[in-house]
Amino acid sequence: MMTEALGWAGDVSCRVQRSTFRRLAASNSFMQGAAPKVYLSLWNVIALGIGSMVGAGIFALMGQATLMAGKNVYWSFLIGGVAALLSGYTYARLGSRYPGSGGIMDYFNKGFSHKTLAGALTLIYLGTLVITVALVAKSFGAYASRLFLPDESVTVFTTGLFSSIAILLLGALNMGGVKAVGKSEVVLVAFKLLILTILMLASFGSSVPVGADVIPVKGLDGLLGSVGLTFFAFAGYGMMANTAGNLQNPARTLPRAIFLAIGVVMVLYLVLSYVVLTNVSASSLDKHAETAVAQAAFPVLGVWGFVAVSVAALIATASAINATMFSMLDISRGLARNGQLNAMFKQPFWGRGTQGFFYLLLGILVLTNAFNLVAIANLAGACFLISYLAVFVAHWRLRKETHGNALLIIAGFVLMLGILAAFFYQMFFSQPYLIPLIVLFVAGCFILEIVIRKKIGPKGA
Known about the structure:
By secondary structure, the protein is mostly helical. The chain is built from 18 helices and no strands. The longest helix is centred in the C-terminal third of the chain and has 40 residues, at 298-337. The chain is globular. 52% of the residues are buried.
């Protein structure tokens, strides 16, 4: 089955994180004997969750969410955080009951007896990861353009150029098989969080310069429409469920880790919202929405603060691109070996790369350069919401096995469905052409899965 073939692959970067798990366990003296069992502590999982959430999403989407919600962006992050907590409850119950590395794809496989539906939902989620690479690459290009070029030289073409360079270089890195160094990963994440902490502390008591146009309060439609973007900034919590197989007591540790990590990140995002609202004028936000977090550093930390935040953004976005590509390459190659994808996904191209992976890179390049950042963010946000809504449905079907609370499952589903509806309402007026694209994408995943099922036959089903 498709989801079974994918089960070993995990979430966005679970294979990248497995080596991190082993290093963490070794550093905490968990590894003993010839065949050690890797166990993670509560704080290991919390750190992983915070690192997964506080990454490319917040650097890319803070400005766009503030443009839509204005000073109500606080409420946007609160609503997105509550939705993440309710969804996190579902992930915690499912992860505790079915500990393993498959995450969302395992839950689809177990929750839906109709394997075509489970496989199509898996394809939707994997397609969402491809869109996410384009979003993160677009953000990388925006920050790189602001960092290396004068403002008057920054255009959509320079942003596209830097984005394309990142996609090609990191794609080549993955095909070449270069291994990341664990210690450098820790140092880079620590640097990112340190810079953001300094920015937040320095911003208290500051304000937009006198005479500047302050960011206004937007209407209810803008607030509700922005929640789809702010929820996307929390979406990394889903990866925490992939650690369940490495926990001694997942039923106790996983829920605590998920709730604590989301709570910490919610507070962080609210403070970052304050930083942007108090240090960026409305005209500056409109001009530099794609790099709003770095723009907020100018009044309080000067040019060096802007540079430091921009570097932190480049680190976060490059890391996210690399991790997602790593997962995409392994997933596609494994599916091809099992007859789930065209043979070109296992035919060598260069290094450990395949012809299919090369074509995926070309598709990402087209998507990145054909759409602006907010359009790609809307596509990714909508597809993530669809995938996570399906997780609620899977949990409802499995609630007797997970001992899940029916009211919390229903509340989370209704809230997320409302967020998706508001998201589509906002897109209908701002970018209506995206709605048929999303419908075609979802329909295409179902059609492709039906074709795959017919090829596999009753034995594979």
